[in-house]
């Protein structure tokens, strides 16, 4: 089946021939290699706690090799970055839609979070030394990374609350103190760099310049004994080993400038600028992968309906089932249009000017996909929330998206403030209408 049939007509002419070819290759790669590989990946994760977090499923490397042969590598680095393959956010979004159908696809194509956002930051803000040490091997798929932002016991959706401190000592090095958690990717034995959002100043006159992003060499930090990965945190019971979502404590860890002269990314006080730059396209990636998960869930549901009889009648002939299925097809299409519109807005302007569109997509998509996955679990019955289908784990991943990269409430608050700012224009509109009534009546 051609991917042209899956792309909304309003966006089809925005996709280049080269982009269309890559989207088709992505779909075929996912269907032919990644979805079958998911089962192998899961089987290759050790159940022995001594080595569960020390080795990675072997199936990933041949998948990566195949993806590179197909030219499916680092597709997320858009036309804004000279280091990337120059696809638009819209084009990569359509690729991410298919990558979201499986677990292995993103890493196989080197488009996994949090590496994607971290690579964007290094590409946009990194010095030559930072790029040579971290961006080059990240883009080559030789190392992994983590972004340490969320903190225990505070509302991290408001980054002003972030309290992990980095204070300069007499030697001019930053000394780090604080606790981070839900650091995705920090459990991976290949993770070589942490980007840490921390407080470097306490200037009340400009609170948005108090935070910075530190570049931390993981091996050095752990060897010091003053940075420790305390534990992997589970999400609905899944620990996502060996990737992990970890709690990390810093106790007087000194970030040595001898290892890397530029220990701050982009400069002191630019933390807010960096996280906004990172999160805009990242939200599009998450939403498009979520749509892919929802579409895969509908495939599973249809397959179940084809082989299940309810009180002597096939499920796929029952009107109630068919109507619900059609309803969710419509819901996915609505989300697809919202997300692609946001992606295109980023392409023709930038993430800052697309905040309204990004917020709408981020609010609506994860909730809708969770509803679809929840229905899929119900259709399967007890099997739906067991390990024998992908639905339960997909639900866990997608439920986190309603909190990750900003909870629903934060995006709704931002969107509502933007909309409320336009209310005075409404009064002017109706005043204008009233002023024209008499003139129009004389036509």
Automatic annotation (TrEMBL):
<feature type="domain" description="Acyl-CoA dehydrogenase/oxidase C-terminal">
    <location>
        <begin position="269"/>
        <end position="418"/>
    </location>
</feature>
<dbReference type="Pfam" id="PF02770">
    <property type="entry name" value="Acyl-CoA_dh_M"/>
</dbReference>
<dbReference type="InterPro" id="IPR046373">
    <property type="entry name" value="Acyl-CoA_Oxase/DH_mid-dom_sf"/>
</dbReference>
<dbReference type="InterPro" id="IPR009075">
    <property type="entry name" value="AcylCo_DH/oxidase_C"/>
</dbReference>
<keyword id="KW-0285">Flavoprotein</keyword>
<dbReference type="Pfam" id="PF02771">
    <property type="entry name" value="Acyl-CoA_dh_N"/>
</dbReference>
<dbReference type="InterPro" id="IPR050741">
    <property type="entry name" value="Acyl-CoA_dehydrogenase"/>
</dbReference>
<dbReference type="GO" id="GO:0033539">
    <property type="term" value="P:fatty acid beta-oxidation using acyl-CoA dehydrogenase"/>
</dbReference>
<keyword id="KW-0560">Oxidoreductase</keyword>
<keyword id="KW-0274">FAD</keyword>
<comment type="subunit">
    <text>Homodimer.</text>
</comment>
<dbReference type="GO" id="GO:0005737">
    <property type="term" value="C:cytoplasm"/>
</dbReference>
<dbReference type="GO" id="GO:0003995">
    <property type="term" value="F:acyl-CoA dehydrogenase activity"/>
</dbReference>
<dbReference type="InterPro" id="IPR037069">
    <property type="entry name" value="AcylCoA_DH/ox_N_sf"/>
</dbReference>
<dbReference type="InterPro" id="IPR013786">
    <property type="entry name" value="AcylCoA_DH/ox_N"/>
</dbReference>
<dbReference type="Pfam" id="PF00441">
    <property type="entry name" value="Acyl-CoA_dh_1"/>
</dbReference>
<dbReference type="InterPro" id="IPR009100">
    <property type="entry name" value="AcylCoA_DH/oxidase_NM_dom_sf"/>
</dbReference>
<comment type="similarity">
    <text>Belongs to the acyl-CoA dehydrogenase family.</text>
</comment>
<dbReference type="GO" id="GO:0050660">
    <property type="term" value="F:flavin adenine dinucleotide binding"/>
</dbReference>
<dbReference type="InterPro" id="IPR036250">
    <property type="entry name" value="AcylCo_DH-like_C"/>
</dbReference>
<feature type="domain" description="Acyl-CoA oxidase/dehydrogenase middle">
    <location>
        <begin position="146"/>
        <end position="252"/>
    </location>
</feature>
<dbReference type="InterPro" id="IPR006091">
    <property type="entry name" value="Acyl-CoA_Oxase/DH_mid-dom"/>
</dbReference>
<feature type="domain" description="Acyl-CoA dehydrogenase/oxidase N-terminal">
    <location>
        <begin position="53"/>
        <end position="142"/>
    </location>
</feature>
<protein>
    <recommendedName>
        <fullName>Acyl-CoA dehydrogenase NM domain-like protein</fullName>
    </recommendedName>
</protein>
């Amino acid at each position: 089946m051609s991917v042209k049939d899956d792309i909304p007509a309003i966006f089809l002419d925005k996709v280049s021939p080269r982009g269309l070819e890559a989207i088709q290759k992505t779909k075929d790669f996912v269907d032919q290699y990644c979805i079958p590989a998911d089962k192998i990946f899961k089987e290759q994760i050790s159940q022995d706690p001594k080595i569960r977090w020390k080795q990675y499923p072997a199936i990933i490397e041949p998948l990566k090799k195949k993806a590179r042969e197909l030219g499916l590598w680092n597709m997320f680095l858009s036309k804004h970055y000279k280091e990337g393959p120059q696809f638009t956010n819209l084009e990569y979004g359509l690729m991410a839609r298919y990558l979201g159908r499986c677990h292995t696809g993103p890493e196989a194509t080197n488009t996994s979070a949090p590496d994607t956002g971290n690579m964007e930051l290094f590409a946009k803000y990194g010095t030559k030394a930072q790029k040579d040490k971290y961006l080059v091997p990240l883009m080559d798929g030789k190392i992994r990374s983590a972004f340490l932002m969320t903190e225990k016991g505070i509302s991290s959706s408001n980054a002003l609350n972030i309290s992990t401190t980095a204070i300069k000592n007499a030697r001019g090095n930053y000394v780090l103190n604080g606790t981070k958690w839900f650091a995705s990717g920090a459990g991976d034995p290949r993770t070589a760099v942490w980007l840490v959002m921390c407080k470097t100043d306490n200037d009340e006159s400009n609170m948005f310049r108090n935070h910075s992003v530190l570049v931390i060499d993981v091996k050095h930090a752990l060897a010091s004994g003053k940075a420790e990965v305390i534990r992997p945190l589970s999400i609905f019971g899944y620990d996502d080993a060996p990737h992990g979502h970890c709690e990390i404590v810093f106790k007087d860890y000194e970030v040595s400038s001898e290892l890397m002269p530029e220990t701050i990314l982009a400069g002191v006080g630019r933390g807010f600028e960096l996280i906004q730059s990172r999160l805009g396209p990242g939200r599009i990636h998450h939403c498009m992968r979520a749509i892919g998960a929802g579409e895969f869930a509908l495939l599973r549901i249809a397959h179940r309906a084809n082989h299940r009889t309810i009180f002597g009648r096939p499920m796929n002939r029952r009107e109630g089932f068919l109507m619900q299925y059609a309803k969710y097809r419509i819901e996915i299409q609505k989300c697809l249009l919202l997300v692609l519109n946001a992606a295109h807005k980023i392409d023709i302007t930038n993430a800052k000017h697309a905040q309204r569109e990004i917020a709408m997509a981020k609010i609506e998509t994860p909730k809708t996909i969770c509803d679809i996955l929840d229905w899929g679990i119900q259709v399967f019955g007890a099997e739906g929330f067991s390990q024998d289908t992908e639905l339960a784990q997909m639900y866990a991943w997608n439920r986190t998206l309603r909190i990750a990269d900003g909870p629903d409430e934060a995006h709704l608050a931002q969107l509502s403030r933007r909309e409320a700012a336009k209310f005075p224009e409404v009064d002017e509109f109706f005043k204008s209408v009233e002023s024209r009534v008499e003139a129009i009546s004389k036509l």
